[in-house]
Design brief:
heterodimer; B: 573 residues; alpha+beta; Penicillin-binding protein 2a (Domain 2); Beta-lactamase; 5-stranded antiparallel beta sheet
């Protein structure tokens, strides 16, 4: 091992343990959500998710071994590759669920917009980390805006509104931590809000519909509104202790659509109840707290930006996903990290955890 | 400082989510639990009715009727004996069928399973009454396609059948569901997008016995667009009846604007079979009949050698290129020698001296052999294309085919042998490699009827009340004098006592036309008649094709007469 003992001691075993715990909860939920389909083991969702986890673990440990400074050095290249993949997926991608987001490699689908989240964090961190005092000027914000805008527009064009919107909090939090002036960030927000009607114009029919349905689920009780209503019934009927694993009637009787992917939380809420839901929420919260504390204990600007970006990325996904399953937010198609079925999302999250561990291990002690 | 603020914001949002969970899972638990325990939310689909089809006079040809299906929801059944009694008494279901139905329903206990489809209206009402006494029994009303003309016009309308998995995958985004029917063939297919309605539905809450307690939401269905077509139902029926049990096709069109008045193809089928339950054997029989091919529309998808009707094109080519004039004559002795081979006229003793008008009237092969050789295959090819052969007419029906207009280049490329003089002789009398569809022949005769203008045949006039744009006719570029001479020839065909098409004569209306008797490798000759009336200002052109129907001057000309008489009776002529 190249990693010396001191660093090994710094390897955050608790963070790693919580990650695995959440993944196991996810596997149980995926099993429960899909067992009715009676697929053979090799075709089952659980098996496929396990393969992705194995691949992801290899990636996680590889990304721990290489110093994150190397990632920063390669960040623009990674960013460039990822942007090209986004362009390629627009041109070639399979049309699925009305959107072009995927590459198919053999049996597995590959979604470059998921990896874009990390590439964006790295590229922004590389840019901001280098400029310590200059971030105060308005001119220094031009490059970060360009770095942000390119993938944002490409992902939006897929069209994947949810993923595009998750990029925004990452962007703002890294700028915030990087030292941009609040006044400037405020201006950017104002401009963004003013541009919103233009983006509304660019949205596809089904996305407009989802936003409208969020405002009033009754306008479409059969389509998008149906998912929200059924998901709320599932979670609400779970009560304090839940109906028990494999015993959720909403889940087993096939009432909730997309319940092994974006709506996996409805299965957990129904079968594990309020206790289970809160426990899962707490696990996430602890991971995120850990990420924030790594960020604040790191004296290196690059590392701090990376850790903050990842913390915000995970928080955004968890908050938006759970909120949409209980009708607090519109259905935007964001997976629940480590839990939702889906290889690209799982891989991205595991690499993100790897980067967190990486930054945590190499933080300079005062 | 800033990182603290960020953590605070994230923590606050987590707490908010936690509160949301508390609200849903603890405070509203009772409400949601009740909903889930009863599985009490159902979606009752309301079909968006498919658009109807009306003829040019506003008469309904294809509409929707109410159909009643019997459904069982197994989970709700509490009195099996009573239920079985009702099914037996009202529907006359034998007891083994009842047992089978209950088993079927048991396989999907929460969803309604259809156990009897399309039951008579009176029985449906009685059953509806009875279903109040016993739970688990439901009558579902659905709209079913109704083809009012039955066997008549079936190729024009097409039929419906269940969407395939592949199509569903492709059309999901357009609102298609697994139970949907899609148009196959005819207008049903061509205008699928316009005809299809958008399904709606009601989301209802039901109690534990499956009775509706309240409506959670309604999405209104949208009806598909109605089509008004240029067909006249009476002429359509006449065309179908005139064909009778012969194999072949009839098309009639208004040559001034391309409006199709009737289009029939036989053997035919009843499109209602595809929507009626329990007819799978008949359906398979229709779809697998390789010999009669009842599902194929011979009027636009059948290709045949045109035989002598093609002489219209050769005569026009010769006159227009000034290779012959109205007075050029050739002597017909009954045979024509080319090297060692000899080609015969259909009349063994010969027609004697023939000019172009007499040659058309007599359908003299020898005249056209001579003419064809002077004109040459290249000119024949290019004039055939001007008349619309070898290309789609663009009619608004699916599966139209191009046929084949051969030429030197085509033969070299596809047959790998050069063009021979014998090919030219065959070409001049519409035989050889040449293949045409009945609608192309109709288009050809319309050019003559319309003084040299080609129209685009079409069937739909209005979609959902909106007028379809009319494609303007365009001149094919023939000298006016040429058309005049050809028209004169076609007049003689029907009105001269020696003409081959004299059986098409109609009292009080001047009919012109051309017959054709096409040899083919499959057996007996195909018989053609194409014509138009009235001679001076044509209002109807007509093509009749009988597969293996013998001589064009006999049955097809007679059918032509019958059709023109019916059109006269209806006031078209």
């Amino acid at each position: 091992m190249i990693i010396d003992n001191k660093k090994k001691r710094n390897l955050d075993a608790i963070l790693l343990g919580m990650t695995i715990a959440i993944f196991i909860i996810g596997m149980l939920a995926i099993y429960s959500a899909t067992q009715a389909r009676a697929l053979s083991f090799r075709e089952s969702y659980v098996f496929r998710q396990a393969i992705w986890f194995a691949i992801g673990t290899i990636f996680l440990f590889s990304s721990v071994r290489i110093s994150y400074q190397k990632f920063i050095d390669a960040s623009y290249i990674l960013y460039g590759i990822n942007v090209s993949l986004l362009v390629l997926v627009l041109v070639l991608g399979h049309v699925r669920l009305g959107a072009q987001r995927w590459f198919a490699i053999g049996n597995f689908a590959f979604q470059p917009s998921e990896f874009m989240k990390l590439s964006l964090i790295l590229a922004l961190s590389a840019y901001i980390g280098q400029r310590k005092d200059t971030m105060q000027s308005l001119a220094s914000l031009i490059m970060p805006c360009v770095i942000m805008a390119i993938p944002f527009v490409l992902v939006l064009a897929q069209p994947d509104l949810g993923t595009a919107l998750t990029l925004l909090p990452i962007f703002f939090s890294i700028l915030l931590i990087g030292g941009a002036r609040l006044k400037h960030l405020g201006w950017m927000t104002a401009i963004g809000i003013l541009c919103a009607p233009f983006f509304w114009h660019c949205l596809r029919g089904y996305q407009k519909q989802r936003l409208m349905v969020f405002l009033n689920p009754n306008i479409d009780p059969l389509g998008a509104g149906y998912t929200i209503i059924q998901s709320k019934i599932a979670i609400g009927s779970g009560g304090l202790l839940g109906k028990g694993w494999l015993n959720g009637t909403q889940n087993q009787l096939n009432f909730t659509p997309e319940r092994h992917t974006d709506f996996i939380f409805s299965v957990i809420g129904e079968e594990w109840g309020f206790f289970g839901s809160i426990a899962l929420l707490l696990l996430y919260f602890m991971i995120i707290q850990r990420a924030f504390s790594i960020a604040s204990q790191t004296s290196d600007r690059y590392g701090r930006c990376i850790a903050t970006g990842i913390a915000v990325l995970l928080s955004t996904q968890v908050i938006v996903n759970i909120s949409m399953t209980i009708g607090l937010m519109p259905v935007v198609g964001i997976p629940l990290p480590l839990v939702s079925y889906g290889g690209s999302s799982l891989l991205t999250t595991l690499v993100a955890v790897g980067l967190l561990l990486n930054v945590g291990m190499r933080r300079s002690t005062f | 400082m800033r990182d603290r603020a960020l953590i605070a914001v994230v923590s606050a949002l987590f707490i908010l989510v936690g509160i949301g969970l508390f609200y849903n899972q603890i405070l509203k638990h009772g409400y949601y639990f009740k909903l889930s325990r009863n599985n009490s939310i159902r979606i009752v689909p309301i079909d968006g009715p498919r658009g109807s089809i009306f003829d040019r006079t506003g008469k309904a040809l294809v509409t929707n009727r109410m159909s009643f299906d019997v459904k069982l929801v197994y989970q709700e059944i509490n009195d099996r004996r009573k239920l079985a009694g009702i099914l037996r008494d009202i529907l006359g279901m034998p007891s083994e069928k009842i047992v089978e139905s209950l088993e079927k329903a048991g396989a999907r206990p929460y969803a309604g399973v259809t156990i009897a489809e399309d039951i008579p209206k009176e029985k449906a009402f009685v059953l509806e009454e009875a279903s109040c006494e016993v739970s688990g029994l439901h009558i579902e009303t659905r709209s079913k396609r109704d083809y009012i003309l039955g066997m008549f016009g079936s190729h024009l309308f097409g039929y419906l059948s269940a969407i395939t998995e592949e199509e569903l995958e492709r059309l999901k985004d357009e609102g298609y569901r697994i139970t949907d029917l899609v148009g196959r063939g005819g207008l049903e297919k061509y205008y699928e997008r316009e005809l299809k309605g958008v399904d709606g539905g009601t989301q209802i809450e039901v109690d534990s016995r499956g009775r509706q307690t309240r409506v959670l939401g309604v999405k209104e269905p949208e009806a598909g667009k109605d089509l008004q077509i240029t067909i006249d139902a009476s002429l359509q029926v006449a065309a179908d009846k005139l064909l009778g049990d012969r194999k072949g096709a009839i098309i009639a069109m208004d040559p001034s604007n391309g409006e199709i008045l009737a289009i029939a193809s036989h053997p035919s089928f009843d499109p209602n079979i595809f929507v009626r339950p329990g007819t799978s054997r008949e359906r398979l029989q229709l779809l697998n009949d390789k010999k009669g091919r009842p599902m194929s529309n011979k009027a636009i998808s059948g290709i045949y050698p045109p035989g002598s009707v093609f002489k219209v094109v050769v005569a026009s080519a010769a006159l227009d290129t000034k290779k012959i004039d109205a007075h050029s004559s050739f002597f017909c002795s009954g045979t024509y020698n080319l090297g060692r081979a000899s080609f015969d006229c259909w009349k063994a003793e010969g027609h004697g001296w023939q000019d172009v008008i007499r040659a058309l009237m007599n359908s003299c092969n020898i005249f056209f052999y001579n003419t064809g050789r002077i004109v040459g295959p290249d000119s024949i090819e290019s004039y055939a294309q001007r008349f619309g052969f070898g290309a789609l007419t663009g009619i608004d029906l699916p599966d139209e085919v191009r046929g084949l207009v051969p030429g030197r280049a085509w033969k070299r490329a596809h047959r790998k042998i050069p063009w021979y003089e014998g090919d030219t002789l065959n070409y001049s009398i519409g035989q050889g490699y040449l293949l045409v569809t009945p609608i192309q022949v109709l288009n050809m005769i319309a050019v003559v009827a319309n003084n040299g203008n080609l129209v685009r045949p079409h069937i739909v006039r209005r979609v959902g009340g909106e007028e379809m744009p009319l494609v303007k006719s365009r001149p094919v570029g023939l000298d006016g004098n040429v058309i005049k001479i050809v028209r004169e020839g076609l007049f003689e065909v029907v009105n001269n006592d020696a003409g081959t098409g004299k059986r098409a004569k109609v009292k009080g209306v001047a009919v012109a036309g051309k017959t054709g008797t096409a040899q083919n490798p499959q057996g007996r000759t195909h018989a053609w008649f194409c014509g138009f009336a009235p001679f001076e200002r044509a209002k109807i052109c007509l093509v009749v094709l009988l597969e293996h129907g013998g001589k064009g001057g006999v049955e097809p000309a007679q059918i032509g007469q019958g059709f023109f008489e019916e059109a006269k009776r209806l006031g078209y002529l």
